[in-house]
Amino acid sequence: MAVARDKRQPMVRRTALRDGLVDIDGARIAEATEQLRHRSRATLHDRLHRVRMAGGLAVQAGLAAGLAYLISHKVLGNPQPVFAPISAVGTLAASVGQRFRRTIELIVGVGVGVAVGDLLIYLLGTGAWQLGLVVTVAILLTIFAGASVAIVIQAAATAVLIVTLSPSTQNLEIPRFVDAFLGGGIALLVTAVLLPLNPLRVINRAARPALDLLATQLDATADGLRSRDRATIQGALERLRDNKEELATLGEAIEGAKETATLSPARWHRRDELTHYAEAADPIDRAMRNSGTLIRRSVTLIEDEEPVPESMPDAVGHLAESVRLLKHEFAAGEEPEKARERSLRAVSEAGRAYGAGVGFSGSVVVAQIRTTASDLLVASGIEQEEANRWIRTAFGEQERPVAEPAKPDETPKPPTAPPVG
């Protein structure tokens, strides 16, 4: 059956739109354009953030490569100082916090590759099939010994260099060892002495995306609960689930900062502050997970048309603000007292919501508000047992039914943060 087409002239269609018809295609195009603009701005912001995060590493790698080349060529007399700068860059390219280990792995991998390559060249000669055999044996040998992936790769790469360059370059083995030591040592020297990064600044930059992500999605959930908008809460849940990159970046930054504070004399005075950050990583991770449960149950709450007391979205909003305050006070090097107080206020509002009456999913949301607030208190430096005690106190003050008036001498006081023991 043929489909009737609109044979009216464009001017006629435009007139119809002016007369009150809806331009569906135009609305869709406008929405898609706006999403594209937002995504472009977000992508540019993310890229600039990654550049700022990697800027220090790039300068360190450039300095280490140049020094390794200069020392190998000018001081040690190596006419082709290729391996030293490669080793330096390879060490710095390792995940931050693992550079000392990467230097050891680099040297071990070189040793295995040289040994296997020289032995098989002596027995079998050089050629394509010999090269394939050398790489296979080097990989299997290191795997059998239980070596890390870095050692396996380095052993195979060194074996390839030995087999391919030995016919044209004599006595390659000793310079390869020396360059491995030199490159790794120069990399550590640059990171520890010549150009040590500020470990607290590194952690602050790494923590910002993770904490911003958590706060933003909690805010979206609070808005969705107020308007009973399931789509908004579902979007927050999906975004929070995709948090592996932010948490991995934070974990690597903490490990790198601890390594810098250990190796660099100029950063030794930062050790106590870094310990505090390191202890906060796990509770922040737990807060992410518990917030995910909170948001998922909020979706079910809306779907099941359960009651949403006014104080419930307020409690979730206080959690979001607590995360922001924690980020700010961490960055400023302050005691996170405001973040603690806001976490307890979230629990207090959750207690009001529970007293007003909630359904099954609503009770789970209330429980997760308490659990997430406890995680944030622990992240702020409070012991778990003490945090739980303060959570119970803040929640219990609001368990009285709404219709029951408080006695004059029992007026609940705003929750305050306890001193850190």
UniProtKB/TrEMBL annotation:
It is found in: Membrane. InterPro entries: Memb_transporter_dom (IPR049453). Keywords: Membrane, Transmembrane, Transmembrane helix. The chain crosses the membrane at residues 51-72, 78-97, 104-125, 137-165, 177-197. Residues 397-412 have a biased composition (Basic and acidic residues). One of its GO terms (cellular component) is membrane. Residues 67-190 form the Integral membrane bound transporter domain. Residues 394-421 are annotated as: Disordered. It is a multi-pass membrane protein. The keyword Transmembrane helix applies. It comes from the Bacteria. Its main location: membrane. This is Uncharacterized membrane protein YgaE (UPF0421/DUF939 family). It comes from Micromonospora taraxaci. The lineage of its organism: Bacteria, Bacillati, Actinomycetota, Actinomycetes, Micromonosporales.
